[in-house]
Every structure is written in structure tokens, then in C-alpha cells.
Write a structure and sequence with these properties.
The complex is a heterodimer of chains A (503) and B (498). Chain A is α/β, with parallel strands linked by helices. In chain A, helix 9 (316-334) packs across helix 11 (366-379). An eleven-stranded mixed β-sheet of chain A has the order 1-3-2-4-6-5-10-11-9-7-8, sandwiched between helices. Chain A is 36% helix and 12% strand. Chain A has one domain (1-144, 155-503): Amidase signature (AS) domain (Amidase signature (AS) enzymes, Alpha-Beta Complex). Chain B is an alpha+beta fold. Chain B has three domains: 10-306, no CATH class; 313-430, no CATH class; 439-494, Arc Repressor Mutant, subunit A (Orthogonal Bundle), CATH 1.10.10.410. Chain B is built from 15 helices and 18 strands. The termini of chain B are far apart. The chains are: A alpha/beta (503), B alpha+beta (498).
């Protein structure tokens, strides 16, 4: 029997419908894969008993010719999504062993459609990070290795340095790339879906702000956070996003627009579409490999009949600094609820202020504390206008840059997804956090403008590591992104990991 | 501070050692919105439930929870704005006010800072029945209430009750237009009346559903505003007046001793009759207000406002004017009646088809007097408007006299038959309380009284006011039932006074 974990989500779906295998067999294969891959640290909680129970229900439905769009398909869930009865921590000590009594809207829609939960996936603490090195459960390891590096379990040395899977959805990207689930939920506040997808040869889409409900997802920065999937193929992401999307009256920022059948967009012609190439994304010191990748993408889309136009998004360079004001500001307030009073960690203190201080000192990691302090500072009396208000003005200008380009007839914008391929654990940001923040340089603009963006793998760098391209779309036009990404995927091929070296 | 200046009436000034002082007062009223559910969650707002029994996931600020605005609270705020003759802002913004406290689960209060739902307005306040002032309203905004910390439940721990957490409040901010404790009290009284008419806040100060932050400063007449102190959370109208006076005298004392006033937050202790410092300006929180990214700006169109406006009840000022013109009442009586909507409604039910002045007289003097004595409000009156109207009718028809009417009132108030309310006319009939208008019968009584008191007859002839003594005797002899007009007339004739 073929290795069921190597299937894409849609291949597995078709196999289940054709009764080539059962949902239980599919779940068991994935449970075994997850158990054998603990070295990668992609899962922070495995839930095989839930998976098998759900799979049995799916088998019963499938036997009757029933079942939803994701019937019997095993998924991994980022630990930012609250799951009823299953520990949810946002990978922070401050939530301790928090077990929600409620299910996030997005995951409840996945279960509604028949999906199977393998467990909770690692992420940067409260989704703050670009390398999954800030999780209280430890680093996640990228299943990709630099060419020539041949480390075994426990080996060290520069050559054998484990690579990061990107962040904050590093558990999601690592698990999907390593075939530890068919697809995963993720969240994206500044690039947390697209950058890890690019680092692992997987596909990740951050839909338009408001497309997915945020209800039940631990908040990082409310005006930027958006749920989305990471999958093995563009088609897989299309199927996942359809189930994850939809209006939710419990989230007033979610939008009441009908959810299209995104899978129908796969294979749709892109002939005559205008693709913008923004000059501001050609940054100083951009590696030649990234330049070439970008050019390959241009050529593929041109070959498929798209029209390439040079565009300008003049406020791009202000996006990253503005983002690192807005996001920490919102986070500093969103994380105030973790005070030790009602749930999660509590460190006893002399009085209430002492209890707060001890609890938050012990519960939050370095990066989270840094952002709470930055956020508190930029909202303080006397600094608000200079920082927060100005950043919001920049945000408006960034949004307008995109609106102008779209109004001029551009259908989508093509950029690199990241400035480099995956780097080694501990290689970046230890001396200067800004070095790490620069990872988001191509992705944060999309969050600031609330637009949809997809990262699709398009090639390998000189060390044999995957690189991704990003397509940015008009609001609620995810379909065009799927159609264009499919062109790239067809041209570049998919990027399955070369070996299961950890097993 | 705004340059808007209203000078105090000289008689409101406080005499100090260095001359007269004027008090300047502005009030921030926190009024709990009357609604079934909280401002951003579906939890009940019912008072008096077991601790933490009305707490949703949103109220407890569980991870990933999001606020959703309760439209009824928005309507209530708009209704209130209309009742305060204020500008309604079709677009307003909810902000987060950030601070840590155990009864504030989110770590921030959702409030409205720069863009409130209601802008400037004004209300007319009756300081006495004949004197009124116009008080400016600066703004009204919606915000969440906090929970309650309980410090008396455990020797070393404090408990938190979140039933109140997230309940909708309207903060109504006045301009610094008030110049005395009496004006401040009259303002709160009037505001409370308007809110109760609108049905947007029950005004129950005992339950904390209406409370005031009182800003007080003093100045020499005509001088610029002084430094103010804010007295937090005063929860009765009487205490508001006391707090103003006590705080003004404290400030005058400091200033006359050559000191300066520190801007600070203070608490009023009614037991000790003093205010004391809670925190200074330096200790003031930096609330780090910013727009709540979980909520879109609150927007509605003119039609939404127009619909609410069309359905507003008659408000106290309009009702008072109407009672004066429609029923010929004095401004004083009308003011007493409109203080509570239920009182005015009761009056109008009594006055329907009857003499308005007589109805007002009986409602205010007899009914309200009795209710006051028994500490009841009009809703709990054992006597219905129909019953009281029946009494008024019997007087008007000359069936009973005024003094009999008072006895009848007592009977109707206290008695019932088989659990059923008594009909005044039937009682008069059954108990023989009818006024005697039969002149023959009255004459007979008068003749008897005259015959028994020849000396008094002589005196009356010399001094006609003595006739009053005879009237009293005749009424007494008739058990109060003789028609006084007939008694007067016959007596005058018999005594030769006509």
C-alpha cells in the first residue's frame, strides 16, 4: 500500500470517496507519522484518540455516500485556535494548561465539514516571531535541510544546523511539509502563514481581512490577524479555505460575503490578467536567487497569457516600521487579560500588583515582553501621536497605494515571499530583533492593507532549499490568487521533502 | 476648561475670610442603560443574582473572545441624547481604556473617547418651582461597567463578581455650569427624571445604577476657573450636595491659608462628612486609549435616529407645560406631578373628565401625602385612579363634603371587600355618608342649636364672625353630613345676619 501521508489533501479526499482506503487507515498512517517525527517538535499536543474517533464517524458517513468537503481528512491545528476540551496555549506558559470550553468558529467549520484532528501545532508564542523560536514548547525544526548537510538525530555543528520552519505558523508549515497532516490551520498577522510556507515548500494563503472569523482564535493584533490554511498544493489550500471562510455574527469584523467554491478557480485561465511588479520590492542586497525566482514567476505568468506591468507602491518602505508599531500596540492591550486572575498561570504575590508582575514575568517569553513594552510605549500619553497615530496614517497610505494600482486595472501583484530561504536555528535575531523582523518585509504590507496574499513555492536556492513567490490580490478576490498560483505550481512543480531523515 | 462662564447668583456665594467665593461644579453621571443584555455580550443584566452567574465567555475575557455591540444599548443612548436636546453623532468610535484591575477582566474598558455617540446638548433645571437654569451637556458616551471586588469573603483573598462586568453605562458629562450644591442636586434630579421618562435608565441610586463623579473648584467671583478636584462615585443626590459643600469649604480653607489646590481624585465619606484624597494627578493612570480594533466604528443613518425620535415619550418639560395649559394647574403643582412619569399619568387618569385643579389637589395633597408617609411610590398605591376620581366626583356633585371625603379616602385606602377594591359611591351609599341638602332637616338642627345657646346668639348679632361657631356646632350635630353652603345660608338668615 502506498504511503497515505504522501498524498495531498485533495488526492486523499478523492481516494476516500473512491474507497481506495478508509478514513481510519488515513488517520492511523498520520498518527504513526506524527509519532515518528517528534524530533521536529511540530506538534505540541497529539490527539490520536480524537482523530480515530472522528475517522470512525467519517467512515460511517462515507460508507453511506455522505460526508462533508473535508470528510475523514486529518489536519493539524495551530495552537492559537481554541479547541473545546483540548488544551490550547498559544505556546505560552501564561496560558499554562488552559482547556477552552468552546471551539473557534474556524475549527468548528472544519469539524462540520468532516475533518479529523491530529493535534495542536507549535507556533511562536502568541504568534510573535518569524522562526518558531519563541514557543514555550521549544523550537520547531524544518524538515528541509541544506544540501550536503547530513546530520542525524542529535548531531550539531554549523553544517548540520537545523533550519527554522519560519513563523509564527512554524508547526503548521513543518507538519505539512513533513507529511504529518494533510493540511494545517495557521494564522497570519504580518506574514505568519506565507513566510513559513515559503520556508518549507508548501502553499499558504492569508485571505482578505474579514474572510475568516477570528472568534476563538487567541488574538495577537486584532486589526491584522487573519486565519488561513497551509497545504501541500494550491488546490488543497482552495478546499481548506472554503471550509474555513464565512461570515460570523460573533466577529463584527468578519464580512458577510458569500464564500465561493475556490476549487473551481483552479485551472481557470489567467489570460489577459494584468500582473503588477512593484519596483519597491526590489530591495538592496536582494540575493540573485530571489531575483531569478521572481523573473521565473514573471515568465510563467506571461507564458500563461498574463500581461506584466511595472507598478509602484511608494509607501512600501514605511510598512515594516509602521507594522512594528501597530501590531505591538494592539498586542499590548490584547495580552492584558493574561493577568493570573481567572485562568492560566498564577504566581502568588504579596498583593495584587505583585501577583500581576510575578505572573506576567514568569508567563511571557522575551519576545512577547519586548512587544508588550513597545506597544505600551507607543500608546503612552505624549507618544501616541508620534507613533501610533502616525503609523495608522502610514497604514492608510499603504492601503491607498494598493487601491490606486487595482483601480488602474491590475488584477494581482507578484513579489518574492521572503528575502531568503530558511535560515538556521539561532542564526538570526539573537543580537538584533530587527534582523528577524526584516523577514516580514514582503508580507506585512498585505496585512496592513487587509488584502489576500498567497505564497507558493517556485524553486530551490543554491543550497537546495525551497523559495516562494507571493501573489497579492484585490479584496475578496482569492479566486484570482488561486488561478495564478496554480499556473506557478504547474510550471515549477510541487516541492515534496527529499527524505524523511528524522524517522 | 471651557471659557463658557455662568456667574453664580450672589446669594449662592460662600462667605470666606477674604471675601466671597463662587463654586463651580461639573458632573459626570454614570447611568446604567436599561437593557436585557450587556453592552457587548448576551449575558443578562438582572440585579441581585448569585455572584458570577451572569458571566459569558466574553465578559470573562476568555482567550479569543470578541465583543459584539448590543443594538438596544445603542438605541437607548440615542434616545437619551434626543431627550437631552443633544447632537447625535451618526458615526462614533469605541476605544480601549487600558488599566489593570481584578474586576476588569479584559485589562481594558471599552469606552468612547474621542468620538462619542452623543455630542453637545442642554437641559433646563428647576432649582426652585419658579427659578430655572440651563445646564450644558458636553457629551454622552457608551462604556462597559466593571465587575465588583469583594474584600469581605475571605481572610487573605479578595473575590471578584463579574455579573456587572460589561453592563452598558452611559456617561453623561455636564459643562461646568453648576454653581451650588442645590443646583447640582437639582441637575441630577432633573437628569434622573428625564432618563426615567425615556426608560433608558431606572435611576436607582441604591443599586448603583446612577452614580456621579463630582468635579468641584472654587474661584473669586469673575475670576478664571480654579483647579478642580474630582469626587468619585457619589451614590445619592443628598451626598452629592454634601460633597460639593464639604469640598468647596476645604478648597476655600486651603486657598485662604495661602495654599494651592492639587488636581486630584477624592472620595466622599458621608460618615465623617469629609472628602479625602484617592490619587493625585501624578499617580493618575495613563489609560493608553486607542480605537478598539475588534469593533468597527458605530454607524447609523438619520432614519434610524428619526424612528427613535418619533417614538419618544412626552418629556417632563413638555408635560409640565401641557398640564398647566390643559388643566389650568399652577406651575408648582405641575412640577410636582411631572417629577415622575407615573405620578403625572396617575394624575391624568384622575383628571380625565373632571376638574383638573380639584384632581391635582387630591392627587398631590392627599394621595402623595399618604404615599410619602407610607414610603410607597405611586405604582404601589392601594388606591386606583378610578377610586380617587370617584371621590373627586362625589365632592363635585355635592354628594359629600370635603371633610366626609377625607373619611371616605381613609376607608377606600385601608379597606377592601372580599379582596376587591371598594367603590367610593357604594361606600357613601351603604354607610350613610351622603351630605344632607334637605333644608328642612338642616333647619331643624339649626333651630335646636340656636335654642340651646341664646347667649351665643346675642354675641353673634354683635359680632358676625361668631357665625363660624354655629356652623361648627351644626356640622358636628349632623355628623359632618350637612351641606356647608346650605348651613351658612340658613344660619345667616336665622341669626339675622343676612
Amino acid at each position: 500500500m502506498t504511503d497515505l501521508t504522501k498524498l495531498t489533501l485533495t488526492e486523499a479526499r478523492d481516494g476516500l470517496r473512491a474507497k481506495a482506503f478508509s478514513a481510519t487507515e488515513l488517520a492511523e498512517a498520520h498518527i504513526a507519522a506524527v509519532e515518528s517525527a517528534r524530533l521536529l517538535n511540530a506538534y505540541v499536543l497529539e490527539t490520536p484518540e480524537i482523530a480515530l474517533k472522528q475517522a470512525a464517524v467519517s467512515d460511517a458517513r462515507l460508507a453511506k455516500g455522505e460526508g462533508g468537503a473535508l470528510e475523514g481528512l486529518p489536519l493539524g491545528i495551530k495552537d492559537l485556535y481554541c479547541t473545546a476540551g483540548t488544551r490550547t496555549t498559544a505556546c505560552s506558559n501564561i496560558l499554562g494548561n488552559f482547556v477552552p470550553t468552546y471551539e473557534s468558529t474556524v475549527t468548528s467549520q472544519l469539524w462540520r465539514d468532516g475533518a479529523v484532528m491530529l493535534g495542536k501545532l507549535n507556533n511562536d508564542e502568541f504568534a510573535m516571531g518569524s522562526s518558531n523560536e519563541t514557543s514555550c514548547f521549544g523550537n520547531v525544526i524544518n524538515p528541509w535541510r541544506r544540501e550536503g548537510s547530513n546530520m542525524g538525530v542529535g548531531s550539531a555543528g554549523v553544517e548540520g544546523t537545523y533550519l527554522v520552519p519560519g513563523g509564527s505558523s512554524g508547526g503548521s508549515s513543518s507538519a505539512v511539509a513533513a507529511n504529518l497532516c494533510l493540511a494545517a490551520t495557521a494564522t497570519d498577522t504580518g506574514g505568519s502563514i506565507r513566510q513559513p510556507a515559503a520556508f518549507t515548500g508548501t502553499v499558504g494563503i492569508k485571505p482578505t481581512y474579514g474572510r475568516c472569523s477570528r472568534w476563538g482564535i487567541v488574538a495577537f493584533a486584532s486589526s491584522l490577524d487573519q486565519a488561513g490554511p497551509i497545504g501541500k498544493s494550491v488546490r488543497d489550500c482552495a478546499v481548506m479555505l472554503r471550509s474555513m471562510s464565512g461570515h460570523d455574527p460573533k466577529d463584527t469584523t468578519s464580512v458577510d460575503i458569500a464564500v465561493p467554491d475556490y476549487e473551481q478557480a483552479i485551472g481557470r485561465s489567467v489570460k489577459g490578467m494584468k500582473i503588477g511588479i512593484p519596483k519597491e520590492y526590489r530591495i538592496d542586497g536582494m540575493p540573485a536567487e530571489i531575483e531569478k525566482l521572481w523573473q521565473d514567476g514573471i515568465n510563467w505568468l506571461k507564458a500563461a497569457g498574463a500581461e506584466i506591468v511595472n507598478i509602484s507602491l511608494p509607501h512600501t518602505k514605511y510598512a515594516l516600521p509602521a507594522y512594528y508599531i501597530v501590531a505591538p500596540a494592539e498586542a499590548s492591550s490584547n495580552l492584558a487579560r493574561y493577568d493570573g486572575v481567572r485562568y492560566g498561570l498564577r504566581e502568588q504575590g504579596r498583593d495584587i500588583a505583585d501577583m500581576y508582575e510575578k505572573t506576567r514575568a514568569a508567563g511571557f517569553g522575551r519576545e512577547v515582553k519586548r512587544r508588550i513594552m513597545i506597544g505600551t510605549y507607543v500608546l503612552s500619553a505624549g507618544y501616541y501621536d508620534a507613533y501610533y497615530l502616525r503609523a495608522q496614517k502610514v497604514r492608510t497610505l499603504i492601503k491607498k497605494d494598493f487601491e490606486d494600482v487595482f483601480a488602474a486595472g491590475v488584477h494581482a501583484i507578484l513579489t518574492p515571499a521572503t528575502p531568503s530561504a530558511a535560515f538556521g536555528i539561532g542564526e538570526k535575531g539573537s543580537a538584533d530583533p530587527v534582523e528577524m523582523y526584516l523577514n516580514d518585509i514582503f508580507t506585512v504590507t498585505v496585512n496592513m492593507a487587509g488584502l489576500p496574499g498567497i505564497a507558493v513555492p517556485a524553486g530551490l536556492d543554491g543550497q537546495g532549499l525551497p523559495l516562494g513567490l507571493q501573489l497579492i490580490g484585490r479584496p475578496f478576490d482569492e479566486e484570482t490568487l488561486f488561478a495564478l498560483s496554480e499556473v506557478i505550481e504547474q510550471a515549477a512543480g510541487r516541492f515534496p521533502i527529499p527524505s524523511r531523515w528524522w524517522a | 476648561m471651557n471659557a463658557h462662564v455662568r456667574a453664580a447668583d450672589p446669594k449662592q456665594r460662600i462667605k470666606g475670610a477674604t471675601g466671597d467665593w463662587e463654586i463651580v461644579i461639573g458632573l459626570e453621571i454614570h447611568a446604567q442603560v436599561t437593557s436585557q443584555a450587556k453592552l457587548f455580550s448576551g449575558s443578562s443584566t438582572a440585579f441581585g443574582a448569585e455572584p458570577n452567574s451572569h458571566v459569558s465567555l466574553v465578559d470573562a475575557a476568555m482567550p479569543g473572545m470578541l465583543p459584539v455591540i448590543n443594538e438596544e444599548c445603542v438605541k437607548q443612548a440615542v434616545r437619551t441624547g434626543l431627550g437631552l436636546n443633544a447632537r447625535i453623532n451618526n458615526r462614533s468610535v469605541f476605544d480601549r481604556k487600558n488599566y489593570f484591575y481584578p474586576d476588569l477582566p479584559q485589562g481594558y474598558q471599552i469606552s468612547q473617547y474621542k468620538s462619542p455617540i452623543v455630542g453637545e446638548g442642554e437641559i433646563v433645571v428647576d432649582v426652585t418651582p419658579t427659578e430655572s437654569i440651563t445646564v450644558g451637556i458636553e457629551r454622552l458616551h457608551l462604556e462597559q461597567d466593571a465587575g465588583k471586588s469583594l474584600h469581605d469573603q475571605h481572610p487573605t483573598m479578595s473575590f471578584v463578581d463579574l455579573n456587572r462586568s460589561g453592563v452598558a453605562l452611559m456617561e453623561i458629562v455636564s459643562r461646568p455650569d453648576l454653581r451650588s450644591a442645590d443646583e447640582a442636586k437639582a441637575y441630577v434630579t432633573k437628569l434622573r427624571t428625564i432618563l426615567r421618562y425615556l426608560g433608558t435608565c431606572d435611576g436607582d441610586m441604591e443599586k448603583g445604577n446612577l452614580r456621579a463623579d463630582v468635579n468641584v473648584s472654587v474661584r473669586k467671583p469673575g475670576a478664571p476657573f480654579g483647579t478642580r478636584c474630582e469626587i468619585k462615585n457619589v451614590n445619592s443626590i443628598r451626598f452629592i450636595g454634601q460633597a460639593v459643600d464639604v469640598e468647596a469649604r476645604r478648597q476655600i480653607g486651603i486657598l485662604e491659608d495661602g495654599g494651592t489646590i492639587d488636581q486630584e481624585t477624592r472620595l466622599y465619606d458621608p460618615g465623617k462628612g469629609e472628602t479625602r484624597s484617592m490619587r493625585s494627578k501624578e499617580e493618575a493612570h495613563d489609560y493608553r486609549y486607542f480605537p478598539d480594533p475588534d469593533l468597527l466604528p458605530l454607524e447609523f443613518d438619520d432614519a434610524f435616529v428619526a424612528t427613535l425620535k418619533a417614538a419618544l415619550p412626552e418629556l417632563p418639560d413638555a408635560k409640565k407645560a401641557r398640564l398647566v395649559s390643559q388643566y389650568g394647574l399652577s406651575a408648582y403643582d405641575a412640577a410636582v406631578l411631572v417629577a415622575e412619569r407615573e405620578q403625572a399619568d396617575f394624575f391624568e387618569a384622575v383628571a380625565k373628565g373632571r376638574d383638573g385643579k380639584a384632581a391635582a389637589n387630591w392627587v398631590i395633597n392627599e394621595l402623595f401625602g399618604r404615599l410619602n408617609k407610607e414610603n410607597k411610590d405611586v405604582g404601589a398605591s392601594p388606591m386606583s385612579a378610578d377610586q380617587l376620581g370617584g371621590i373627586v366626583d362625589l365632592i363635585g356633585e355635592g354628594v359629600i363634603s370635603g371633610s366626609i371625603a377625607k373619611q371616605l379616602f381613609e376607608i377606600i385606602w385601608t379597606e377592601a371587600e372580599g379582596g376587591k377594591a371598594l367603590d367610593p359611591r357604594a361606600v357613601v351609599e351603604a354607610r350613610g355618608m351622603k351630605q344632607v341638602t334637605d333644608t328642612g332637616a338642616i333647619e331643624k338642627v339649626i333651630d335646636e342649636v340656636i335654642a340651646a345657646n341664646p347667649d351665643k346668639v346675642e354675641q353673634a348679632k354683635a359680632k358676625p364672625t361668631m357665625a363660624g361657631w354655629f356652623v361648627g356646632q351644626v356640622m358636628k350635630a349632623s355628623g359632618g353630613k350637612a351641606n356647608p353652603a346650605a348651613v351658612n345660608e340658613i344660619l345667616a338668615r336665622k341669626l339675622g345676619l343676612g
